[in-house]
Write a structure and sequence with these properties.
Elements: H1 2-18, E1 29-31, E2 42-47, H2 52-60, H3 62-68, E3 74-79, H4 86-100, H5 104-117, H6 125-134, H7 139-146, H8 149-164, E4 172-175, E5 179-181, H9 189-199
Parallel strand pairs: 2-3
Antiparallel strand pairs: 1-5, 2-4, 4-5
Length: 203
Amino acid sequence: MKKALLIALALLMAPMAAMAVDYKEGVHYTVINQGPATAKPEITEFFSFYCGHCYNFSKTEVPKIKANLPEGVVFKQNHVDFIGREMGVEMSRAFAVAHQLKIEDKIEKAIFAAIHDKKQHFTNRDDVRKLFIASGVEGKTFDAAADSFMVSAQMSQMKRATTNAKISGVPTLVVNGKYRVETGAIESYDELLDIAYYLTSLK
């Protein structure tokens, strides 16, 4: 009887074993530094306002990430400045300003929509300023933030993080400041997120 129960249990466990996670370094993720991971687990999205895939990712996947973060895991975003020529830098500034004013979600949606839906062409910082004003931010508030030490520091941090993670395309997820999720071996965004969640448990 006991043997029969053990066989039955083994049969039940077999499908679960087949579904076990088997994500491999060098295939599903890359270790981007040999130092320690961040003190607290985190998932960081690297993106650009000029990237159409990033726009779609912001609408479909970012809400999933925020809603399904494992307990204790933080979600962050870094804007990259290597897309859009000189305006790539200004868009990084815009994201940093929005972060300092605590209106990231509102401004992120407005800039993405302006570029990809309305086909608006941004040529300088004043064009960005006008979008902030249209979104309810006073011009002098934008100016003060845009030239602030905190915004400059955040822009430098995002650029440094982009370089350290060897980001060459977006959107890209980096986990715990140490693992870059690779997209070459995945078949869906759901799998991308599964890998990211898995990596949050690694040190």
